[in-house]
């Protein structure tokens, strides 16, 4: 039986998330925790398939960050962050902490949550252990990624933490490298926000993530009015 922990201090929100999870996967066991101490104790003794958590719990503004750090030191369970904190600030923080995805409260609907939740479960099922390192990290301009297994993309020998939607867009661009990928094609990749502004935001997230480890990164080319194209730097 699949087991999921929901760590949320607001009872109505916790119950809503639990209801969505149970409707998405009947028969799943959902444990609800409302503070950091109880959540950390449960995570240390239980083997969860996924943890859904808020960042701010009660008076502890960053309790969720501490819980994620504890998870990373132990089981490495996938984490989906659902928080009211602004995504523009906290998405990059959660990426750095190796959270799998980030949803900002009031900006998504039930369908968005369920799609993200189920995709994480499917990806985690076939994922190799988090502590397993690849035999050889690619160097130079070669990109290594395996979106079906939720493996962190690797660029210049370093791992890049990306939310799931950004990973799907990256995979699409790289698979079609050298060709223009239209906005319409990218709309099929995202689960919600199927408009050009949203696609541009995801692409901006991609570029920022690459430039954190490679300031000269310039492989994602904007094609005005059409879409984007991956161009190998060595070939430009």
From TrEMBL:
Pfam families from the xrefs? Response_reg, Trans_reg_C
Q: Which UniProt keywords apply?
A: DNA-binding, Phosphoprotein, Transcription, Transcription regulation, Two-component regulatory system
Residues in Response regulatory domain copies? 3-120
- Protein name (Swiss-Prot/TrEMBL): DNA-binding response regulator
Residues with the modification 4-aspartylphosphate, per the entry, are 54
Extract the Gene3D superfamilies matched here: 3.40.50.2300, Winged helix-like DNA-binding domain superfamily/Winged helix DNA-binding domain
Q: Name one GO molecular function term.
A: DNA binding
